[in-house]
Amino acid sequence: MRVSFLIAGLLATCSAMASEFDKPWVTPGAPLILDCYHANGIDWNLLATEPRVVAIIHKATTGSKKIDPQYLARRQEAASRGYLWGSYHLGLHGNPEKQADYYLKHVKPGANELVALDLEDVTSTKFMNAAEAIRFIKRVKQRIGRYPVLYVNSRSARIITEKHQHPVFSNTPLWYANFSGSLDRFPRGLWSSYTLWQFSSEILTQQAIPGTAYDMDVNVFNGTMDDLKAQWPLTRCDATMLASEGASGMAETPVLKTRRRQARGRS
């Protein structure tokens, strides 16, 4: 009998592990997150009929000169409808600190808003590379006291894991883009698993969302609906860390001042 229980427990554990990397979006109640930019249409009333969509991550800035024209309006609309909110910056080659400053200047993220770096191709001469991404991430951490989420595709994640074993990356929750149904070749090393998995887009539409077209990017969270709501915006700073950064002599930005007041209020 004891052996039977052990076998059953082992099978249950294996099943849970498999579901994390094998079409987790088909699980009833699996939390979904949309990520979009101005060209993705949204019918908000129809979108509201899909209760699994609880968060939206919207493109905010590109490089150091371009703002998404729909960002602010959709941020307000999403807030009025109760969605969790986040933004991302599309990183281009060159001057990552300037890009981080530009992003934060225009987003002015609240304590409950996710911030993220979209790292499209670390081998490209057009987009931000891995070394520049490290500098961008450090700058965001310095400015607002917490790390951004990192968006990468499977190829770039593998390159970072194999060639750029920098501890900064291990502090960034992984937003993993992969359009196969199973992650049997997940690049473990810096990350033991993903936090968000972008599984559906115009590349391969695997999940239709009411009120959106086939080109809407859809992501699944690695956890339950309650987990997502409790952990959002996926990275946080606490009063102890903020105090140590303030004592380091770092110039305190308005965003960091706000973080410090909010952290004191939670302590």
Secondary structure layout plus pairing:
Elements: H1 2-21, E1 32-36, H2 44-47, E2 53-62, E3 66-67, H3 71-80, E4 84-90, H4 96-107, E5 114-118, H5 130-144, E6 149-153, H6 154-163, H7 167-170, E7 174-177, E8 196-200, E9 217-221, H8 225-231, H9 239-247, H10 254-266
Parallel strand pairs: 1-2, 2-4, 4-5, 5-6, 6-7, 7-8
Antiparallel strand pairs: 1-9, 2-3, 8-9
Helix pairs in contact: 4-5
In short:
The chain has helices spanning 2-21, 44-47, 71-80, 96-107, 130-144, 154-163, 167-170, 225-231, 239-247, 254-266, and strands at 32-36, 53-62, 66-67, 84-90, 114-118, 149-153, 174-177, 196-200, 217-221.
Describe the protein's architecture and organization.
With 267 residues, this protein is of the alpha/beta class. It has two domains: 24-236, TIM Barrel; 240-267, no CATH class. The protein has ten helices and nine strands. The protein has an eight-stranded mixed β-barrel with strand order 1-2-4-5-6-7-8-9, surrounded by five helices. The radius of gyration is 19 Å and the shape is globular. Residues 1-18, 239-252 and 262-267 have low confidence and may be disordered.
